[in-house]
Amino acid sequence: MLGGGLFDAEPLFVPGASFVLLAVVSQAWVRVSARGAGVRRTLSPLRVQEDEPITLTLHATSGITPFPGGTIEEPLLSGSASPLLSGRSADIRIQARFARRGRRRLVPPVLVIRDPLGLSERRVSGSETVDLLVLPRTSPVDVVADGTPRSAGHARAMVAGSAEVELDGLRSYRPGAPASRIHWPALARGAGLLERHLRPEGDGRPLIVLDPRAPQRPEDLDAAVRAAASLCLALARAGGCVIMLPGDRRAVGLDAGLGTWPALHARLALVEATQPVPPFAAAAARAGTVYYVAARTGDRPARVLERIGGPRVLVVPGELPGHRAAFAVSGCRGYAMAPARRPKAAAA
Questions:
Q1: CB within 8 A of 8, min separation 6: which ones?
Q2: pLDDT confidence of 152, banded at 50, 70, 90?
Q3: Long-range contacts of the stretch 80-89 (C-beta < 8 A, 24+)
Q4: Of 78, 154, 192, 291, which is least surrounded by CB within 10 A?
Q5: 3-state DSSP call for residue 40?
Q6: What angle separates helix 218-237 from helix 261-269, to the nearest 10 degrees?
Q7: pTM across the whole model
Q8: Are 152 and 62 in contact (CB under 8 A)?
Q9: What percent of the chain clears pLDDT 70, i.e. is strictly above it?
Q10: Are strands 110-114 and 121-125 parallel, antiparallel or unpaired?
Q11: If you ran DSSP here, which 8-state letter would residue 51 be given?
């Protein structure tokens, strides 16, 4: 229209007026459609395990008029094509997966309304921020033995936590005591009917200690956390266990009913390398096997286990030089450590 006025070219007024009208209509259509428009994200559940699919639904509604066009910007669609809008409403289902554990804060989706020619655009943001907890995945414990029956049996015993009770001496047989507690060798030697006295069950359950310090790679810490979670389930189903997480002063019990497992699983998802290692005073006095799960492979975890006198298993990412693994779980390997040497009593 400006060119038609400057050069007295009347034919230019018709397309000029058309373009002005098109711009005005596009601007008005986008403004009216954006007034009262909104976008809502529905996500369930709010806890998901690593690599498990999670489904979310995006529901977009227009204002007075239908959408002229546009897209929905969703953080979980990073790098993917955004869904296109049309009509008065749109429901879009998305499947997402998370490869690593931890808390994920999902910012609200954004509804981008624009006309087909891209002359006008309005952005409408959702109102809800979602906190999603990604839990560490668990896997079965695989026995690794050298092929001999004795080695395979020892490895299975370690995995099953068979050292949860230890012999604490002999005492006179009490009527009604189980026959499995009778000490038959003593009866054969003529010492009479004796029964084995076992340490209390609470002191003999396997203990899992998670040490997140100084991993060589972030993946090593994730592997250690997954191994600790997998051992928790395996030992709990075999009769029960206790676990000490970073920052804890007391161990948390877990039995075959898995009543405390959801809370433990959530805490394992949030373990960081900067958290303090649990104290070892309680571990050193336990009768059952201590499973020390460390995020770093090296001499430091082995030196830490020297303070523990009972059965000890070191679980680390990768391989420990000079040792043969008894089992593998979640990218880590478990090694039975030799019993700690106790100082000999001084001669009188």
A1: none
A2: very low
A3: 82/112, 83/58, 85/60, 85/111, 85/113, 87/62, 88/61, 88/62, 89/59, 89/60, 89/61, 89/62
A4: 78
A5: strand
A6: 170
A7: 0.74
A8: no
A9: 78
A10: antiparallel
A11: T
